[in-house]
Amino acid sequence: MSLRVIVFLLAACNVFCQDLPGGAAHWWEQEPLRILHLVTSMGQINFMPARELVRKKAALYFNTEHLEVMNLPAGLDDEGWFFRSPLAARMNPDYLGEYLHEAKKHGGLRIIVYFDVTWFNKQFAAKHPEWLQIREDGTPLDGIFSTGTALCINSPYREWLFQVVRDLCAYPIDGIFFDGPIFYPETCFCRYCREKFKTQYGLPLPSKKERRGKAFADLMKFQAESLADALRDTRRIIKGVNPEIAFYMNGGVRGANWATARFNRVLVAEQDLLGSEGGFLNGDLK
What we know:
Elements: E1 3-12, E2 35-39, H1 50-59, E3 64-68, H2 95-106, E4 110-116, E5 119-121, H3 122-127, E6 148-150, H4 157-169, E7 175-179, H5 191-201, H6 213-241, E8 246-249, H7 264-267, E9 273-283
Parallel strand pairs: 2-3, 3-4, 4-7, 7-8
Antiparallel strand pairs: 1-2, 1-9, 5-6
Helix pairs in contact: 1-2, 4-6
């Protein structure tokens, strides 16, 4: 079986972490994290019994992992979830519950749930057209990874997202990692973005094509703060359940981030770690 491992570059955001009673450090501040991310979301979530997979990973001396429990072969939907949620359209085995049981029993392996919050398949998008990111010409965004689309964090999609987060936090997980949220070079001009910008700036949402001047600077600030708002509300939900659940997203690169609005200096304040995908290892990893 051909699997993929993602390498992550991480730094603890100690300055922004909530203090624990007595000045104790959060678990992610206590030692370097050796994080494994085994990509199983292309239809392989439960390809191996949880007990066996936990044992194999622990034997490789990782102390933390991104665990995938949602299938997304052509983008995320609500049918391929392997955990319990009232929002799930299909009841699959509770692999997350089984896996956590084995991980806690084995000890030494922290479980951070991987959640792609941007890339969705066409079938799911068709059920929620009002959630889609929209181009400047009014057409819905498509062609993401050739198969899917992206949802806008300023739309009512955010409430759906928050409920999924609550459902994940009902499990004894150690963290949640968001792949996203982001904007795209030609987005977003949905009515929710236009209305929110008009309320905040008193002006129409400016074009993303003219990448200079105050209007573009305002647009970048607006989009970055929109992402920050979503992260802040998510983090509030998570910490309301358990302050020891770590939360962070796939951060911006060391380069121009205007296309996605993923500006680390703005977004880091709403996260416990600053992390970014550092590379991919492919092939038969058995």
